[in-house]
Request: fold
Amino acid sequence: MKSESMFRQSSVALIAAVLGIWAGLASAIPAAHAEVVFPPGLRVGLEPPSGLILSKTFPGFEDIDRKVAITLLDLPARTYEEIERSAFNKTQSGLADMKRESFPFVSGIGFLVSGQSSENGGAVHKWFLLASAIGKDMAVLINVAVPDSARDVYTDAVIRKALASVTFRPAPVQEQVAMLPFKLNDLAGFRVMQVLPQSGVILTDGPTDDLSRQAYMIIAVGAGAPDDAGDRGQFARDLLASAPLANLNVTVADPMRIGGLPGFEIRGKALGLSRQPVNLVQWVRFGSGGFLRVVGIAGNEAWDALFTRFRAIRDGIEFK
Reply:
């Protein structure tokens, strides 16, 4: 379905932040503390208080017995101002005795909201830290929840010390690739440019992240594929229609077998990100309740050779 196409949405507790898989890979500032722990795949970490361990169910840390949690949401910096307006709204719902303040951390200054809330009939103290890496396309929203019954262990001073240790790092590409539901057994000379955790990856064939100047691929998985074979062609066309391409001219649109499963191939010509002429191919492989989408885009030069490499990457995809 279209929500699984080129653009993916991630909902956060305080604001909706749109993450585009066509965006470039962000750089970061190096970690400053040896004790900082980074949840797998995230560009941000902190020094967790004693008693908190990496969670197996969400990006962050938890003390299961005491029901304490620190959740980290790794975001692009362009969402910072919008989240700030929501997070520091005077009418913020769900929090009593709310306090807003500037908050220094190891890499800069962020904004902290704290207050009391009620969950499952019990009082819970909460902290929300919004921070960004100066000059980088990186931001984080951290949510800390401590029930009153655990406040003697996780005091305000303990939580503030942890939040003050927030540190950014370059995108851990290999960690992120390992979290995908599929393996890329053949990169055919391409390199990983950006990973969308749990959903997809962008590959490119060049030294920069400027997708308007070099060949690239989008590989992503989605849910909600049609069961009826007669609907798959239109489904594939709808997916391609969401791409940031202009003047799309489809030259081939045929069903085919891909990896032993039903699939659909579309080839065509269009104007690319900088309105330069490009060739493109999209393969959609259909499975039980979901689909794999592989898109390759390149200029007219050396298209035949690139098409062969696109196909090699497609055929080397293996689901875990």
Remarks:
- The helical segments are 80-87, 156-164, 173-178, 232-241, 303-315.
- Residues 1-34 have pLDDT under 50 and may be disordered.
- Residues 303-315 form the longest helix (13 residues).
